[in-house]
Amino acid sequence: MNEALTPAWRHEVWPHSTAPRSAWRGGAWRAVPLWASALAIALAIAGAARAQSHEAAAQSPPDDGQWTMPAKNHENTRYSGLDDINTDNAARLRLAWTFSTGVLRGHEAAPLVVGDTMYVVTPFPNTLYAIDLSREGALKWRYTPEPNAESQGLACCDVVNRGAAYSDGRIFYNTLDNHTVAVDADSGEEIWKTKLGDIRHGETMTMAPLVVKGKVLVGNSGGELGVRGWISALDAADGRLAWRAYSTGPDEDVLIGASFRPFYAADREANLGVTTWPPDAWRIGGGAVWGWISYDAALDLIYYGTSNPAPWNADQRPGDNKWTAALFARRPDTGEAIWAYQWNPHDAHDYDGTNENVVVELELEGRPRKVLLHPDRNGFMYVHDAATGEVLSARPFVHTNTIRTVDLESGRPELVEAKLPKQGQTVRNICPSAPGGKDWQPSAFSPRTGLLYLAHNNLCMDFEAMRANYIAGTPYLGAKVKQLAGPGGHRGAFTAWDPIAAKPAWSHPEKFPAWSGALVTAGDVVFYGTLDRWFKALDARTGKTLWQFRVGSGIIGQPMTYRGPDGKQYVAILSGVGGWAGAIVAGDLDPRDGTGALGMVNATRDLPDHTPKGGALYVFALP
Amino acid sequence: MTWYRFAVVRYGALHSVMTIAAWLALASCSDNGQHADAVFDGGGSADHDYVRLGDLIPGGGAAGGRDTANPVAGDAAAIADGRQLFDWYNCSGCHAGGGGGMGPPLMDTTWIYGSRPSNIHHSIVSGRPNGMPSFGAHIPDHQVWQLVSFIQSLGGTPDEGDANDRPDRRD
Known about the structure:
The structure holds two protein chains of two kinds.
Chain A (H helix, E strand, L loop, with lengths): L36 H23 L19 E2 L13 E7 L11 E3 L2 E5 L6 E5 L5 E6 L21 E3 L2 E6 L3 E6 L5 E6 L14 E3 L2 E5 L10 E6 L5 E6 L4 H4 L17 H4 L17 E4 L4 E5 L20 E5 L6 E6 L15 E7 L2 E9 L4 E6 L5 E6 L6 E4 L6 E3 L10 E5 L13 E3 L4 E7 L1 E7 L13 E7 L6 E7 L4 E8 L8 E3 L3 E5 L4 E6 L5 E6 L9 E4 L5 E7 L7 H4 L13 H4 L12 E6 L2
Parallel strand pairs in A: 1-32
Antiparallel strand pairs in A: 2-38, 3-4, 4-5, 5-6, 7-8, 8-9, 9-10, 11-12, 12-13, 13-14, 15-16, 16-17, 17-18, 19-20, 20-21, 21-22, 23-24, 25-28, 26-27, 27-30, 28-29, 30-31, 32-33, 33-34, 34-35, 36-37, 37-38
Chain B lengths: L2 H10 L4 H14 L1 H9 L35 H13 L2 H5 L21 H10 L14 H13 L18
Helix pairs in contact in B: 1-2, 4-7, 6-7
């Protein structure tokens, strides 16, 4: 069974432009216009499914106008309750102010706003800027952690940083050379700095921490260098390591114990992190934790995914390679695993599991259910039961030819043998390509529309697998890859996905891989940016482009919105091309070698014709 | 054919990290004379035992430093071996087929640390501060020169010269 869960209701018919503004500030649904009797029928069908999420939104406190973590909240919805900027007026957005970061590499971070201060963390050298919003964007202070310059040579996909997190008067973030720092949010003074990894083993840190119950949760990067992946919890007070859970190895190291109850029986055997590998291969087997962590307070579970196994050449590591390309649910206090699920057993395509798991409540088969929405690199959109890990639905959101279907009985994907790379061969036209149907770029969920909004890729690849040698601190790949545009010729898209109907409500093709995060608001406006330098506002219900602005360099950052000290709503985005998708520009790569940047150059040869380098913050507001 | 080329072919076929590591250990023991010759045959005295990166000589004196010619420059077999070593030592993981990725491209004419064979040799052996690892303890010197031959074959360096000295340059 892999069908839609309930009858479809379509969002493009939702009446948006005539609804009264401001009556239900904070996220209730809009009044139904009387003239729309035909639509009312559709709404009646939709009503049951929609009501639950709307009630939840209506009950939540009004948005305080701050943005204290990259994903806006623990659930990772990237949904703002602000609606001053809405579908009626978004076309009048104007540039309010800008700020140069002084860094030329890829800017993937989300700015934070706490009180009257904005915080911006840059790619290497990971400078943290505090900007005074009450003094028209004046620079308040800067903190320079001075990371080891050699760490730049170990970052697989540009020297990015995905942002900081605020909690209890402190800003927490990671430096490329494997330190987590706590900085006083008022003064910019360093409070503590903890070293967590070693560049000599290929480790770096690029992810944004999540702070839960006084613990700063962080993980390592380096799935392309044969690291052993881990997540760690640091005491927010003093930076001391509270617990660390590895992604591979014996259960003791993975913090799998008596509480572990994975949904699928095959996942319940002991020490799978050892037995699903050739001897000792788990020690250099990847499973890095460089993506998003979410948290549900009611279930008291954190959720995060692990990266691809190392090396890319799967013939060198027969077995399921647990727990790489997998999802963990853990207790934040102790780190103990409650359940786990592997999206891509024995991954052969670099389909990391590090993408976000957005915690939402949906009405499924007549009852409300707390679920995780996970757009996986393998091109399937998963809906998991948040309490058990059960796969409730898995449907492709991009063109895919590597997986036929996901068997809901066993939870395992049915792989297409012909699209599995084999050592010594080149397998052509594998879809999606290594960065997947969607890479790190985080999606946004609106409780008003019930849709998940995601910027994503439309890429395929030719993959030549070859023997990889492990030399600590160097890439451990065994692959030569060339990526190509997927069907249709566009290399990316921005899609509104209906998780109940399990299909897109609308989709907007993009010339290049769409590598930015998404933001959706109570004004029913969704924001994202493109590699060819557009920052866009779309109608969340119809996908209509309401407004776009041409910035200085391609956008791979995460849009956010806040209420300024003057009471106005602002929208902010970092521009500054780079990351994996923009590597050809950020790294001055040679377009003649299609295998450059793990094959991304082959698919982005024309990007230098569209954007230069350059990191800058752009802030927009209504006049 | 020199003994080491034979070794590359024979052991390379086994495709084993352990074997290569063991062989490297052996090579470093048995190769001392050859290693020393290759490093220090630039004709310079100890006073000149440095690799000059640029052309700016304070005081206008003669350009000094070691400027060793690649002993296997242009040698087809050396280029072929270098191409294989480029994968085996994971150079290609960062520099791809020469177009770059985690590391800079090697097929274009932009050279952060100089394009002379000595500069490239020095980059491989000593490493560079922004992320190029030091492979001096891993790679026997003759293989470093094979790698330099392969890199030179990518077309980003003029024959035995400096990319900055190319004829079309107008400073």
